């Protein structure tokens, strides 16, 4: 994506230096753990002159010999109000025409408002194209404020109408989140938020040929919805707070977990059904291919490769590596022609929201650490099922792992409760999925287990790099998953 359509900021060494210091501290920066070898400004587009000024930047960041691209909205003000101080990048002395306090403009409603107006008016500014979904209107004049949700990008909430996701790490071509959401919106799928518009970098504007690069996605804001992670945690809290049933055996059963007030199983079943319906619509929109045995061997080889890499970095994974490898080998040997199709790719409870009418699936971008080709590649739909099963395991154990004051024997008692909760909700999800026409997870147990372990390995690296205090969550569940 490098090259410059920019307007003269690319050579500003002080801006580059400030950005190189600021970038690694951002939650959404994907290259944590490796030093930045080089940073330059690929494109710079002035979106607003005057006070405050707004510049759209695409940064070319080289790490480990490879270049990645990140999007930054750069605000510039002579005086920085207190509320914007936490988002300051640094002070510029005007070497390339910018002087004042530079900051992350995603946090400044005065500078996010124009984005909506540009999409409504389908503006073209330098290499930036603002697009509106044909046949839809966009309300303007709303301020965008960053969502507080835990996420890999930055989403701006405009009133109670829209959510605009600014993709931080950019990949060539159309972003899968836009591609899939548009296809599902057009197919009339009721389990995704409607797409209202998007922003893209024109082909050639990035000097790299190919199609336009998606920069942002504007969707319907699900205002009364709650995300699946919060709902599941509420249920786990409720179950953990129940006194042990009189004369209960040491290990509570999934039915005991169901008797607690906040049982989640009915919702888990509905979520399974919604997942199967989305898989059906994805298959219709993008097609299905029966993959040859060689593709399964390649799949297993990829799982081994990730395991090797993560075990090298995280020693706590190593004792489980042998058992995990045996499960991956089973997949490699299974040799049948399985139907592969477009899937979600990074499916978990934080990617689904319960509205008043049902479950909605979000974020079809795939796993942030995968290459664009991997994210788009057809996969078996049970990979998503396994992702959600992992998420039930996460929700079940999150409270235990996050309570540092918990005595080890109390943690062991809660671990038994966590298992019962996870089992109950896993079963309900799988039953809902199969009843709605998805491939029955019980009939593909080895494949589901391999996908789950592969996801757990991915999570161990993800947590080690991004949220080290969460690392015990996937490690703890691995202890019984790896067997
Ligand atoms: N259309 C929407 N309406 C309301 N909340 C949303 C919407 N899309 C996403 N969210 C919230 O934002 C969170 C992060 O969104 P997501 O698309 O997963 O971002 P990222 O890819 O950056 O992680 C979700 O978990 C959800 O809580
Ligand atoms: O939602 P993202 O696309 O940013 O996905 C990444 O971050 C997720 C965490 O925010 C991470 O999910 C892991 O933690 C969840 C709880 O926060 C849990 O429900 C998931 O099961 C677990 O994988 C996801 O793996 C990562 O790609």
Automatic annotation (TrEMBL):
It catalyses: D-maltose + ATP = alpha-maltose 1-phosphate + ADP + H(+). Residues 22-108 form the Maltokinase N-terminal cap domain. GO terms for biological process: glycogen biosynthetic process. Residues 252-393 form the Aminoglycoside phosphotransferase domain. Its EC number is 2.7.1.175. Pathway: Glycan biosynthesis; glycogen biosynthesis. Monomer. Belongs to the aminoglycoside phosphotransferase family. This is Maltokinase.
């Amino acid at each position: 994506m490098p090259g410059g359509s920019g307007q003269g900021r690319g050579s500003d060494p002080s801006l580059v230096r400030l950005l190189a210091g600021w970038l690694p501290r951002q939650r959404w920066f994907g290259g944590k753990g490796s030093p930045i070898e080089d940073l330059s400004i690929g494109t710079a587009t002035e979106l607003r002159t005057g006070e405050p000024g707004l510049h759209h930047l695409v940064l070319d960041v080289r790490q480990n010999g490879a270049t990645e691209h990140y999007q930054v909205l750069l605000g510039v003000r002579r005086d920085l109000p207190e509320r914007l101080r936490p988002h300051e990048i640094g002070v510029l002395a005007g070497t390339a025409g910018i002087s004042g306090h530079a900051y992350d403009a995603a946090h400044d409603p005065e500078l996010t408002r124009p984005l909506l107006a540009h999409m409504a008016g389908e503006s073209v500014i330098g290499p930036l194209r603002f697009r509106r979904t044909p046949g839809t209107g966009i309300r303007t004049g709303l301020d965008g404020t960053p969502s507080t949700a835990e996420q890999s990008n930055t989403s701006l909430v405009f009133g109670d109408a829209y959510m605009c996701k600014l993709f931080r790490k950019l990949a060539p071509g159309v972003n899968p989140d836009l591609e899939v959401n548009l296809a599902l919106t057009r197919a009339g799928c009721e389990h995704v938020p409607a797409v209202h518009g998007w922003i893209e970098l024109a082909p050639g504007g990035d000097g790299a040929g190919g199609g336009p690069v998606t920069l942002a996605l504007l969707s319907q804001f699900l205002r009364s919805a709650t995300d699946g992670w919060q709902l599941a945690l509420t249920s786990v809290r409720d179950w953990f707070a129940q006194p042990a049933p009189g004369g209960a055996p040491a290990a509570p059963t999934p039915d005991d977990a169901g008797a607690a007030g906040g049982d989640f199983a009915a919702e888990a079943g509905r979520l399974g059904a919604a997942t199967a319906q989305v898989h059906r619509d994805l298959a219709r929109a993008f097609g299905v291919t029966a993959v040859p045995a060689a593709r399964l061997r390649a799949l297993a080889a990829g799982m081994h490769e990730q395991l090797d890499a993560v075990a090298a970095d995280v020693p706590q994974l190593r004792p489980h590596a042998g058992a995990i490898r045996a499960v991956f080998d089973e997949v490699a040997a299974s040799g049948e022609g399985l139907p592969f199709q477009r899937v979600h790719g990074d499916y978990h409870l934080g990617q689904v929201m319960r509205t008043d009418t049902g479950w909605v699936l979000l974020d079809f971008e795939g796993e942030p650490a995968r290459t664009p080709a991997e994210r788009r590649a057809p996969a078996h739909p049970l990979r998503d099922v396994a992702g959600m099963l992992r998420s039930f395991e996460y929700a079940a154990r999150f409270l235990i792992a996050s309570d540092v004051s918990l005595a080890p024997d109390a943690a062991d008692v809660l671990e038994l409760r966590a298992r019962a909760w996870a089992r109950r909700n896993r079963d309900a999800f799988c039953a809902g999925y199969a009843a709605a026409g998805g491939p029955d997870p019980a009939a593909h147990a080895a494949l589901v287990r391999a996908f789950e372990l592969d996801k757990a390995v991915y999570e161990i690296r993800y947590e080690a790099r991004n949220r080290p205090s969460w690392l015990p969550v996937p490690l703890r569940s691995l202890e019984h998953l790896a067997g």
